[in-house]
Amino acid sequence: MAPTLSYVIITPYTIAKSRTGGVIARLLSRTDLELVGTQIIAPDESFVREYAASLRDQERRNPSTAGELLATYVENNFNPSGGRKHRFLLFMFRGENACEKLTEITGAFFPKVRSSENIYGQTIRDTYGEYIVDYDDHHKIIYFEPAVLASRRQDLAEENMAIFVRHFKNIDNIVRNLSYPDQSKIEQTLVILKPDNWKYSSSRPGNVIEMFSRTGLRIIATKVLRFSLNQAMQFYAPAETVLQEKLAPVLGHKAKEILEREFSLALSPKTEKYLSKYFGLEYAEEQFYQLLEFMSGRRPDTCRTLDEAEKPGDVKCMIIVYEGENAVQKIRNVLGPTDPLKAPQGTVRREFGSNIMINTAHASDSHESYEREKEIVNINSNSLFSIMEEYLASRKK
């Protein structure tokens, strides 16, 4: 069966309550679908109007879809209010029976259609959603919060994706929907959930985001990125110098000790200097190449052409931009030191890191680093809606 594309929307309320990480953990750990894109969006009234109308029309054609309830919810919660737009987070998944699998994870809206096996927290809506009716009149809804929105049928999902493409294909990836009393105190910082989070389906990316949520910072941008080799080389260029400066002398001295012990010979400082210059630097270069391969899936010594070095790599990362007061330091405090073995308990790297290279996440270490890094990852653009557009075009053939 050919793979299909479908989506899940994390609602503004779920984001505001810092439940994003928990929802993402469920989505990623309970399906074999591939996450192909994500973007945070602050919609305007025209999108809300068209999306709500589509949900009502889908209800008319498919009475079991709860379209009227959802349309009203979207109008009440997605429309700008108080002069400010509200954020929702869009995730796009690809795989066989995408809609069916996502529906199973997100869960039912109404208790009356839930089986006894799925009312105790297994689905996202069981855990994070609310559906409260009047005790005496079960047809009267007192409070409704679905936590996430998703389509139960592939044709309906594709109708909605067409709306997403029309409204959001050319928008900026960074959401700017909030004014602060003192803008001078506000920082932005960039986080990368590294490839070790995406080797297999797991809750880890969501759990990492959940840990970062304790900072109280706002997520203002997300994207899925496959680093090209050139991007990885540019991003980690400062690390190459650090590796050379730190590793070369250490390896040169260690090589000197091994040779002296092996041959019962005292070597001169001049020999140690040569060992550092040649063996030490070569070792540092190999460590740098391994870092590039970890982040992009490719090494400079195996990349034959410039075009190949520019192509998206073979491994996946997620980019997140956080915003708020003292954002750089707050994120780094939760992240922990580069070496997971030296990181304090309760930090991301201590919980999930393996070693200095495979340490789960990267975070900007200063405002200057953030400015440099966001340009390299091209944070203002997102390929999500181009992916949707290409998929929809292929479905028409």
Task: Please describe the structure with a list of short key phrases separated by commas or semicolons.
four-stranded antiparallel β-sheet; 47% helix; Alpha-Beta Plaits; 397 residues; alpha+beta
Structure, explained:
With 397 residues, the chain is an alpha+beta fold. Among the domains are: 185 residues, Nucleoside diphosphate kinase-like domain (Alpha-Beta Plaits), CATH 3.30.70.141; 79 residues, no CATH class. The strands form three sheets. The protein has a four-stranded antiparallel beta sheet with strand order 2-3-1-6, sandwiched between helices. Strands 8-9-7-10 form a four-stranded antiparallel beta sheet, with helices on both faces. It has a two-stranded antiparallel sheet with strand order 4-5. A hairpin with a 7-residue loop joins strand 4 and strand 5. The longest helix is centred in the last third of the chain and has 28 residues. It is elongated and about 90 Å long. The relative contact order is 0.15.
